[in-house]
Amino acid sequence: MKARYAVPLAIFVVLVAFLGIGLKLDPRLVPSPLVDKAAPTFTLPRLDDPATRIGPDDLRGRVWLLNVWASWCVSCRVEHPILVELARRGDIAIVGLNYKDEQAAAREWLQRYGDPYLMSVVDADGRVGIDWGVYGVPETFVIDKRGTIRFKHIGPVDQSIVEEQLIPLVRELEQEAA
Amino acid sequence: MRTAAAVLLLVVTLAVDAKVELLQFSNPDYEQRYRDIIAELRCLVCQNQNLADSDAELAQDLRQQTYEMIERGASDDEIIAFMVARYGDFVLYRPPLRTTTLLLWVGPFLLVGLGIAVLVTIIRKRAGDARADTTDTERARARALLASSGEEKPSP
């Protein structure tokens, strides 16, 4: 007789546990196959100087962040002050990938909200974005001295991600040999 | 009524078709392959749509990418590998069998097996109950009652 109640109760508890875990998972967080792979190469014009073209090879030997942003991207506004703050520390290089944006709008955006980037490069048609597996702007990658992607964050970074993940990881990677 | 339905159907069809870019394929086979591939790949932005159905910008870009790769003579496998290298197995509506996806593939069969096992157990139990629902003491009591009423001898 007891089993008659215990079994449905057990099933219910298991179901609640699974649903509870499911609530906490974010379906937007798709694991990137690019982590621990070589950063996809590109040569793109600089936003501030379209005559100069820049690629990941130019940054070889240093740890850097690639931040994918656009002036049309609402969540980029949210994370922007945090990036400006991070850049103000002066010891972490952030390269911006200006993704599918109008160049004039992008320049104006940086003027208005501040420019945390060592430089921004222009990916007007989103081809480089595809190579980097970008699907939810803003995205932030950490690239080590050998040009390998070590970390990817999808969506806006917040203070705790910067303090607890990005900065410690950059510090750790700076200790590695080039 | 029929005409109205036909007109409605036509309007709806046009509206649906309006999303798809007009692409010129140099080979009629290419178009079929293009349609097959974009139906198999998942849009990363609207995750419950495939590339063919999604109107997201990224889906448009990836359709364009697929089109260009087909026109360049890439095979289906090459195009799928290109997408998986960038977006992971997640872009596939039919994920490959790996240790991480094992539960996904085997899970439904396990559940069906479990269901059948439970069903068989219940049916067996019920059949057993039906046979055992008169116990020896009950039978003896029934016999005693019948004997005391003196009407009929109980059959064994």
What tags apply to this protein structure?
heterodimer, A: 178 residues, alpha/beta, five-stranded mixed sheet, two-stranded antiparallel sheet, 7 strands, elongated, B: 156 residues, mainly alpha
Task: Explain briefly what this protein structure is.
By secondary structure, chain A is of the alpha/beta class.
Description:
The complex is a heterodimer of chains A (178) and B (156). Chain A is 40% helix and 19% strand. By secondary structure, chain A is an alpha/beta fold. In chain A, strands 5-4-3-6-7 form a five-stranded mixed β-sheet. A two-stranded antiparallel ribbon of chain A has the order 1-2. With 156 residues, chain B is mainly alpha-helical. Chain B has six helices and no strands. Chain B has helices at 2-17, 28-40, 57-71, 76-87, 102-131, 136-149. The model of chain B has no long low-confidence stretch (mean pLDDT 82). The chains are: A alpha/beta (178), B mainly alpha (156). Chains A and B meet through α4 of A and α3 and α4 of B.
Q: How many beta-strand segments of chain A?
A: 7
Assembly state (oligomeric): heterodimer
Envelope shape of chain A: elongated
Shape of chain B: elongated
Secondary-structure-based class of chain B equals mainly alpha
Biggest β-sheet of chain A, characterized? 5 strands, mixed
Integer average pLDDT of chain A: 91
Our count of helices of chain A gives 5
* Spatial strand sequence of the major β-sheet of chain A: 5-4-3-6-7
- End-to-end Cα distance of chain B, whole Å, is 74 Å
Residue windows where pLDDT falls under 50 for at least 5 positions of chain A: none
Q: What is the topology?
A:
The complex is a heterodimer of chains A (about 180) and B (about 160).
Chain A: H1 2-24, E1 44-45, E2 53-54, E3 64-69, H2 74-88, E4 93-99, H3 103-113, E5 119-123, H4 127-131, E6 139-143, E7 149-154, H5 159-175
Parallel strand pairs in A: 3-4, 4-5
Antiparallel strand pairs in A: 1-2, 3-6, 6-7
Chain B: H1 2-17, H2 28-40, H3 57-71, H4 76-87, H5 102-131, H6 136-149
